[in-house]
Amino acid sequence: MDLTDWLDEHAEGWFWFVKRLSGNDTLANGSHQAGFYIPKLVFFRLFPSLKQHSHDNADTWFDLTIDSHPDVRKARGVWYNDKLRGRTRDECRVTNLGGAQSALLDPDSTGALTIFAFRQPDGSDADTCNVWVCRDELEEDFVERRIGPVEPGRWITWPPDGGLLALLQTPVRTDCRLARHELPPEWLVRFPSGEEITRKVIELRPDSQMTVDKRLLRRRDCEFELFQSLEEAVELPNVQAGFTTIADFLKTAQTVLQRRKARSGRSLELHIREILTEENFQENQDFTYQPKAGNKPDFLFPNEAAYTDPSFPRERVRMLAVKTTIKDRWRQVTEECDDLPVRHLLTLQEGVSEAQFRLIMNAGIRLVVPKAQIAKYAKSIRPHVLSVEAFMADVRTA
To answer: Average pLDDT of the chain?
Structure first.
């Protein structure tokens, strides 16, 4: 089935749960979970009857079809709830997916944007789930143009609320989610640039005593919350006022989606730039951001002038590409600074398959991943992945 037709067919009357498959979802890191994770809030929205059960591993069965990779089976939705009996596990997963031959468990699917479209009779548990595992970057971009960017470790639902707010007993405000009156007034008139948002995040999360790995992840979480509150303050009044034409509605929706994608595309590199400065790297002396040489990598160390100087030792030059996800996008890095023996690629993707990792290593690319995320990679891969702090230490001694 064509992806466009599939999205249209599952648009009305379906509840979408969308995420990027992590190494803990697939079999990429040797996990024995054998099923993808669903947040409890979403799980009980889909299977409300299970919330009432306290017996071991309350479960239900439903029809699951993977339309992108023809596969049909009965799947099991299970709440591993032994925390109710004094132990530790309290999470929800969908299992019985058929092993590595399933596109949902295939290690090569790690990082793939995946849509789980559930059909749920009124007031009952979901009885059907149709799945699309994006097969390449083009499909991922097509989906994100419709629903906005989906970052590793995060999930969204479509429709955006999907009835989830009704399940929250009390509204929870995170530290970085600002009320309208707390936002800079000029932001309500002109949507801020990525640099302005990043500076506000640093104000909210200075975290100067934290390791760079923790600081990066904390600030990324903070930015996500800040952006959500800003978007709500700016766009919600327009939505509540209504639209006089379909064209006006589509124009507003497209603006929101394009703004989300633009923020997601630059956010990570802007945070890395700020952290480098905080760690006493001087821009244009110790690093160059967005150099033109070398087919425009994100960062060059010690700087662009050193890279273009034929007398400067090549083994002392480092380049860093920054990509939130890398499932297919890592190949773009092969075109950057191809005269260097090793290129570095920073990502937030939660794992890769061993086969894909071999391709990345054989292409002369070394992954840089925040320390807390490295545990989500297979044990055989972890020793070959640098933390952000380790990469900076390498740059200092080059």
So the answer is: 90
Identify any residues that bridge with 27 across adjacent strands, giving them in sequence order.
none
CB burial string 257-276: b at 16+ within 10 A, e below: bebbeebbebbbbbbbbbbb
Is residue 15 a part of any domain in this protein? yes
Flag whether pLDDT at 163 surpasses 80: no
- Domain final residue, candidates 116, 142, 167: 167
Same domain for 85 and 196, yes or no, is no
Band of residue 367 on the pLDDT scale cut at 50, 70, 90: very high
Which residues lie across from 288 on neighbouring strands? 300
Res. 290: pLDDT tops 60? yes
Q: List residues with catalytic annotation.
A: 307
pLDDT bucket at 99, cuts 50 / 70 / 90 = confident
pLDDT in tens, 186-240: 999 999 999 999 999 999 999 888 899 999 999 999 999 999 999 999 988 888 8
Q: Are β-strands 15-20 and 113-119 bridged in parallel, bridged antiparallel, or unpaired?
A: antiparallel
CATH number of 126's domain: 2.40.330.10
My answer on whether 7 and 155 are in the same domain is yes
C-alpha dihedral over 222, 225, 228, 232, to 10 degrees? -120
Residue partners of 93: CB distance under 8 A and separation at least 6: 33, 35, 36, 37, 38, 77, 78, 80
Same structural domain for residues 162 and 81? Answer: yes
Average the pLDDT over 248-260 and give the result.
Answer: 88
Domain count, the chain: 3
What value does the mean pLDDT take over residues 26-31? 80
Q: What is the DSSP string of 108-161?
A: GGTT-EEEEEEE--TTS---EEEEEE--SHHHHHHHHHHH----TT-EEEESSS
The residue type found at 379 is K
Report whether 377 contacts 369 (CB < 8 A): yes
Residue with tokens 């639209």: 243
Give me 7's structure tokens: 């999205």
313 and 365 together in one domain: yes
Q: Are residues 19 and 162 in the same domain?
A: yes
Structural element, H or E, at residue 63 = strand 58-66
Q: CA–CA separation, 100 vs 30, rounded Å? A: 11
Q: b/e map of 353-379 (b: 16 or more CB within 10 Å)?
A: bbebbeebeeeebebbbbbebbebbbe
Q: What is the CATH number of the domain that holds 294?
A: 3.40.91.80
Assess if residue 175 is contained within a domain. Answer: no
- Domain of 95 in residue numbering reads as 3-167
